[in-house]
Design goal:
heterodimer, A: 568 residues, mainly alpha, two-stranded antiparallel sheet, 2 strands, B: 85 residues, 4 helices, 0% strand, elongated, DUF7990 (chain B), CC_star_Cory (chain B), Cory-CC-star protein (chain B), CstA_N (chain A)
């Protein structure tokens, strides 16, 4: 099959989902009210609660949720063939991710902009809130550990990306100075920043940098992982204006440019898919498609992390409730398109089936490296860029996504450690909390050996934790709908499917870890399994209570009917 | 508003928006430190610059209540100034 046709079908399906299904959800299920007074108006404080233009808010939301995960997941999952990954990404985006993200926004907006954690206490019960804290801690831990390994492997497989990766930090530092110290015009700074970043890519392409194979008895990827954690620790303590803010900004611009380049190249190159639609010749040791596909691709199909962003920050800035359709659902569409791009790059970007099979020689082997190689080849064919330069562009893009998520992840983990300290009546300083956050993630990364393989081994565990989080969010939405006596089928069907696949995957992995005597992952798997069963029991109980008419949201139903100017 | 002005405003919001809370928190910490310096003499801490900071006291008194509640003190720690009963 031709990749252009697949791209056109995929994009058309996802856009049709936005036009038709999101309209149905907005009008019939969530019943978004244009006159509902959103928290951004009701609680305006100029800090958290700020009514924001829907296009700008979509930009914030999309760049916050799009990290390395929509690239890593599909790039690993195409080992079962491109068709299962394609169907899961497109149908998942249409019927699950968009519904979930829009629903999380709606649920939070109807509760004064509260986060999913706070909502779980109200709708699922106090135990639900404790569960939420456990899940969020594990999720951040896994993001930090897994992304460090992804970046280290990319820097080794694409040494031309080393200069632009670290150079991007210098560019971000200069942008921060230019804006705050010299008060330059933002548009001009943005153009200079993007030009500087791409110049670094050109320089990096000429001067690849590799570490010696062993440094002080450690393999090169272990050294990169340690350097990355030291960087993330420092970055998370520095004032945000100095590094994180300009870095996130330039990365956001890079995301739009990268997506444009990738889809433009696919259209111009018109490559055929060399990988099989269904891969019957999977390498030995590859787990079965069902259930692992549905947890390997989390971001890009449905992801609990989106609910955290939607209810954490986006809901507080929503100008009108009806904007939830564009910000939430279309945000998921953006991420679905990124995942679709990754599927095409990793299956159409190779010359022959044998080439593709040699890259996908074992489960977890293809991954982002396949995205960089395959995507590089498509960009070479489409835009005429030299293959090595194209690979450097894509590797830098993937590294920057992962790195910005990682330094934010370490920062958030620091807050979690400090909050846990407060709960135990201990004051944990900024430095100590950062060291604890980094040390725990490092321990997990090196838990399965000095080569850092623990970081990637936990990737499917990241998927399951993330899906669990999504299940919790869908449970809250279902309870809210039941209390309003509305149909819950569009929410409950995906929830049942998701939780069934997650629990199934956890059992499959439990067996694998036991056979491999991998006790660290076995314990983590058990914790997540207990949490999953807990989510199911609590959600079913809460839904039953709601169905029997307990705790009807009278106050909110009334508020919904009151328009902004006070008339009913 | 021209399209360029609108684009520019959107770009600015895209840059500043995600970090609004972090800036507000940093500003608050800075203000609290400043408040502590200005009130140091009243709190019994010798301050060589009190000749200058004394001039700021009337301006700062308005914010004392907010400050001491944020510091975890139910009542005003200043003997000569009680903002809440």
């Amino acid at each position: 099959m031709n990749s252009v046709l697949l791209a056109v079908i995929g994009v058309a399906m996802i856009l049709a989902g936005y036009v038709l299904y999101s309209k149905y959800l907005a009008n019939r299920i969530y019943r978004l009210e244009p006159n509902f007074t959103t928290p951004s108006h009701e609680l305006t404080d100029g800090v958290d609660y700020v009514p924001t233009n829907k296009y700008v808010l979509w930009g914030h939301h999309f760049t916050s949720v799009a990290g390395a995960a929509p690239i890593v997941g599909p790039a690993v999952a195409v080992i079962w063939g491109w068709l299962p990954a394609f169907l899961w990404v497109t149908l998942g985006t249409i019927f699950m991710a968009g519904m979930h993200d829009m629903g999380a926004l709606w649920a939070s907006v109807r509760n004064k902009g509260k986060s999913i954690g706070a909502l779980s206490e109200r709708y699922i019960g106090a135990r639900g809130a404790n569960l939420f804290l456990v899940v969020i801690f594990l999720l951040l831990l896994m993001v930090n550990a897994a992304f460090a390994v992804v970046i280290a492997n990319l820097l080794i497989s694409t040494p031309t990306a080393v200069i632009p990766t670290w150079g991007a930090i210098v560019v971000a530092l200069l942008i921060g100075q230019a804006i705050y110290r010299f008060t330059w015009n933002l548009a001009a700074v943005s153009v200079i920043g993007v030009v500087a970043l791409y110049t670094l890519i050109l320089i990096g392409n000429q001067f690849p940098i590799s570490l010696p194979e062993t440094v002080m008895g450690m393999p090169d990827n272990a050294v990169w992982i340690i350097i990355l954690f030291v960087y993330a620790g420092i970055a998370s303590i520095l004032p945000v204006w100095l590094l994180l803010q300009p870095r996130d900004y330039i990365n956001g611009l890079q995301l739009f440019i990268g997506l444009g380049l990738l889809y433009g190249s696919v259209l111009l190159a018109g490559r055929d898919m060399v990988a099989p639609a269904f891969n019957s010749n999977v390498p030995e040791g590859t787990p079965s498609l069902i259930p692992l596909l549905f947890v390997t691709i989390a971001c890009g199909a449905i992801s609990g992390f989106h609910g955290m962003v939607a209810s954490g920050t986006s809901s507080k800035q929503l100008d009108k409730e009806t904007d939830a359709r564009f910000v939430g659902y279309f945000g998921a569409v953006g991420e679905g398109l990124l995942a679709l791009g990754a599927i095409i790059a990793t299956t159409a970007g190779f010359r022959t089936l044998a080439d593709w099979e040699s890259v996908y020689s074992a489960f977890n082997e293809g991954g982002v490296t396949a995205f960089v190689d395959g995507g590089g080849s498509i960009m070479n064919a489409g835009l005429g860029l030299p293959t090595s330069l194209s690979a450097t562009v894509l590797a830098t893009m993937a590294v920057l996504f992962a790195a910005t998520t990682m330094d934010t992840g370490v920062r958030l983990q620091r807050f979690v450690v400090q909050e846990a300290g407060d709960a135990m009546r201990m004051t944990v300083g900024k430095g100590t909390a950062t060291i604890i956050a980094v040390a725990v993630a490092l321990g997990l990364t090196f838990g399965a050996g000095l080569d850092g393989s623990g970081g990637l081994l936990i990737w499917p565990l990241f998927g399951t934790t993330n899906q669990l989080m999504a299940g919790l969010t869908l449970g809250i939405i279902a309870v809210m709908l039941l209390r309003r006596k509305r149909t819950i089928v569009p929410v409950v069907l995906p929830m049942v499917f998701l939780l069934a696949m997650t629990v199934y995957a956890l059992f499959v992995q439990l067996g694998t870890f036991y056979r491999d005597s991998n006790w660290l992952l076995l314990v983590l798997d058990l914790i997540i399994l207990v949490a999953a069963v807990w989510v199911i029991v609590e959600s079913v109980g809460a839904m039953n209570r709601a169905r029997q008419g307990e705790g009807a949201d009278d106050e909110e139903v009334e508020r919904a009917s009151i328009s902004r100017d006070g008339s009913s | 508003m021209t399209w360029f002005a609108r684009f520019s405003a959107g770009l600015k919001e895209f840059y500043y928006g995600p970090y609004r809370q972090a800036f507000a928190r940093a500003k608050q910490e800075e203000d609290d430190l400043f408040m502590m310096l200005v009130l140091s003499e009243a709190l019994g801490v010798p301050n060589p610059a009190s000749y200058y900071t004394a001039e700021l006291l009337p301006v700062m008194y308005d914010r004392v209540h907010e400050w001491h509640t944020r510091m975890g003190l139910d009542r005003s720690p200043l003997d000569q100034f009680s903002c809440c009963c």
